[in-house]
Specification:
This protein is an alpha+beta fold. Among the domains are: 112 residues, Immunoglobulins (Immunoglobulin-like), CATH 2.60.40; 245 residues, Alpha/alpha barrel (Glycosyltransferase). The strands form 3 sheets. Strands 9-8-12-11-10 form a 5-stranded mixed beta sheet. Strands 3-2-6-7 form a 4-stranded antiparallel beta sheet, with no helix packed on it. Helix 7 runs parallel beside helix 9 and helix 13 runs antiparallel to helix 14. The longest helix is centred in the C-terminal third of the chain and has 24 residues. The N terminus is likely disordered. Bound molecules: calcium ion (CA) (3 copies). One calcium ion binds next to helix 15.
């Protein structure tokens, strides 16, 4: 058996002189390179279409029409390059000039042929499943078979009798005070609800509505609200906003950081988990996150006053109140109480939260003083994450026509500069995927999708094909053009995760996991201390190959609401005619 650490030596030229080792190398390379790596969902007719070909040489390839057998394209892959993130030599086969819809067989010299599809809407079903995943994670609601199919389940967590934890006690609401905070989505593989993470998630879905309203206006995915007169994307987001709204203490405007059990539950279905739940500590981060999301929600729902009378006004007032609380409590950093061990979502850097919330409150009120924190930001923006939200404020302002032209230009340039950096990573990468060493963190697949959102925001400012190509590359990465040849979304692609770290999927009687979930993905931290294994020689040894399809691996195989949201956004974006 090969040791786990010897794979990098396969590329040591001195060692190749030894005949036995040379034979082993050939064997290893053959095993590693059985198939080209490709987006397993296929491509839209005019998208860039790339395959990654494992191996050190450029090789000939051809594309045959699957039904007629006729060869429709022949070519040669690019010169091979080394991708340090996976420790592989690869070349690129480009068949973008093929634009006719259909199914094709791609043959690359020395490798197993693969099938690829070119279709008008290759990601439509995936999009609908990715957004329906939120329905499957709803708290306080039974999932009926007519909507949930085999994954129907009893309601869990009514959350109508929540206690105030000692860390959150105030005069009006002392420890043990009981309140109701129903609905919302379970955060991830666990059943708790966290303001900052559900905040960026809700915000991203509202941004998707804002940027792709035509796509969403008549689109539904069989949820209980599919027959009402509100777009389903807003119905789904409202399920969480209604909970979020209840996380604000109306007495002072402060926002509880999370609603949680004291400790993570066992691997049980939602209705089997009945431990007392608490709201924990009001924090500055939660208040600012809440202010940003509620401000955006308020603006969004002005259009739906008939369906949701008074809601826009209510969210406006809540946003303003949360901001005022944050101004009075700028240093309330989350500190996990000793008797609580669920997710912390702690963040000590709040300059970005101030900038984001301020940008949204400016758009809500037209009061320019709210822009001060954003104007004071000194660091260049980068793709958003739950703890780094500055970019979201820039996205909001880039299309704000009321902003003076010079400032708007500055905001746009900041987005374009960040996008240029991502495009450069794409170009330099052997995989033609803008994923670099620092991107292989917990939730790396969501890093890919949030980078793609940033590229789309730059495309909105000034369209250019390279932005779309880099976006496509990032989506290709999570859908199969990666070292493990895996589509990282449950239920989609030829090979996708089966044993996700998600309590309902693990505890129910259905073999297949709930579909449409993007798993966290490869990253080298191994915080879960699982034994990593796999078929690729380097599985578990390189940043882009350290992934384990096992319940054990919460560090690479958990799902989370904030990871699915950018997948929803990007698949909506790529369902548009971009160029
Ligand atoms: Ca609806
Ligand atoms: Ca932050
Ligand atoms: Ca299951």
């Amino acid at each position: 058996m090969r040791g786990r650490t010897d794979y990098p030596l396969l590329f040591d030229r001195k060692l190749q002189a030894k005949p036995l080792l040379s034979a082993l190398i050939k064997l290893a390379e053959t095993q590693a390179s059985a198939k080209p790596k490709v987006n397993q969902l296929g491509f839209a007719p005019h998208a860039q279409k790339l395959l990654v070909v494992p191996g050190r040489q450029a090789v000939p390839f051809q594309v045959n029409n699957q039904s007629s057998g006729k060869t429709v394209l022949q070519g040669q892959s690019s010169a091979a390059k080394f991708w340090p993130e996976s420790g592989e030599w690869v070349s690129i086969a480009d068949f973008s000039t093929l634009t006719t819809q259909g199914r094709y067989q791609v043959e690359v010299a020395g490798l197993t042929p693969i099938t690829v599809e070119i279709a008008a809407e290759p990601y439509a079903q995936l999009h609908d499943a990715a957004v329906k995943a939120y329905y499957f994670n709803r708290a306080s609601m039974a999932l009926e078979p007519r909507f949930a199919g085999p994954w129907a389940r009893a309601a869990g967590h009514p959350d109508t009798q929540i206690q105030v934890h000692a860390s959150a006690a105030s005069d009006h609401r002392p420890a043990g005070f009981e309140l109701s905070a129903a609905k919302g989505w379970y955060d991830a593989g666990d059943y708790n609800k966290y303001v900052v993470n559900s905040g960026i998630t809700s915000f991203t879905l509202l941004q998707a509505w804002q940027d792709f309203a035509d796509f969403y206006r008549d689109r539904s995915w069989n949820i209980p609200e599919s027959t009402n007169d509100l777009p389903d994307i807003l119905d789904e987001t409202l399920w969480n906003l209604q909970w979020l709204s209840a996380m604000q203490d109306p007495n002072d405007g402060g926002v509880y950081h999370k609603l949680t059990e004291l400790n993570f539950s066992g691997t049980l279905m939602p209705d089997q988990v009945t431990a007392q739940r608490y709201v924990v500590q009001k924090t500055t981060a939660a208040a600012l996150n809440f202010a940003a999301v509620m401000a955006k929600a308020s603006r969004t729902f002005t259009e739906f006053e008939t369906q949701l009378p008074g809601l826009s006004q209510q969210y406006r007032q809540q946003a303003l109140l949360a901001w005022q609380w944050a101004k009075q409590h700028p240093d309330s950093i989350y500190q996990q109480p000793k008797d609580v061990s669920t997710g912390a979502y702690g963040d000590k850097q709040l300059a970005d939260e101030w900038a984001w919330a301020g940008a949204e409150l400016y758009l809500l009120t037209n009061d320019r003083s709210y822009l001060q924190p954003l104007l004071a930001l000194e660091t260049p923006i980068k793709a958003a994450s739950w703890a780094n939200v500055g970019a979201l404020g820039y996205f909001a302002l880039a299309s704000a026509t009321q902003l003076e032209p010079a400032l708007r230009k500055k905001v746009q340039q900041a987005i374009q500069q960040a996008a240029t950096q991502i495009m450069a990573e794409h170009q330099a990468s052997a995989y033609q995927v803008a994923m670099s060493k620092n991107d292989f963190v917990w939730g790396s697949n969501a890093v890919a999708m949030n980078k793609a959102i940033l590229l789309y925001q730059a495309w909105k400012i000034a369209p250019q094909p390279e932005l779309q190509q880099a976006m496509q590359g990032l989506l290709d990465y999570v859908l199969g053009r990666n070292p493990l040849q895996l589509s990282y979304v449950t239920g989609f692609g030829q090979h996708s995760p089966l044993n996700i770290h998600h309590r309902p999927s693990a505890a129910d009687a259905v073999q297949a996991p709930i579909p449409g979930w993007l798993v966290g993905g490869a990253q080298p931290g191994k915080q879960d201390k699982c034994t990593y294994y796999g078929t690729l020689p380097a599985a578990g040894t390189q940043p882009a190959t350290t992934y384990l399809d096992d319940w054990c691996s919460y560090a690479t195989n958990e799902v989370a609401i904030n990871w699915n949201a950018p997948l929803v956004y990007v698949t909506a974006a790529l369902s548009q005619q971009m160029l």
